[in-house]
Each structure stands twice: as C-alpha cells, then as structure tokens.
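Minutes, structural biology subgroup

Action item carried over from last meeting: produce the structure token record for Bacterioferritin-associated ferredoxin (Pseudoalteromonas holothuriae). EB confirmed the sequence was re-checked against the source entry. Recorded below for completeness.
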Amino acid sequence: MYICICHGVTDKKIAQTIDDGATSMRELSKELGVGTQCGKCTNCTKKILNEKLIEIVDVTDQVA
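Output recorded by EB:
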C-alpha cells in the first residue's frame, strides 16, 4: 500500500529500509523522502517504524 503519495513510497519499502538499518523518522525521511512534503504520511510511517522496531527487539530477545 502506498504510504507516501508525494514520493511514491510503499509500506513494504519503508519496512525494507528499516530492515536495512534505518531506526528513526529522520533516517527514513533522508532515505525515502517520507514526511518531507505534505506530511500526511508521517503518522502511518511512525506506526510502521514502531512496529518494526518492536519486532526487531522481540527477535533479538528470543535469540539471546
């Protein structure tokens, strides 16, 4: 699903960028341009970021 219409960024692209190491909105904005134009995508992007970071922490805790 498209999250950022201004830059044509999908939820999958955001998730992939997080998997590749992005850990903040600033990094996602720099890498993908999300939240840099109209700003309507910011809330959805933050939700995806938070969910992915929780997944990463849960997986890390299970491995340790």
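Discussion: The chain has a mean pLDDT of 95.
Next step: EB to file the record with the rest of the batch.
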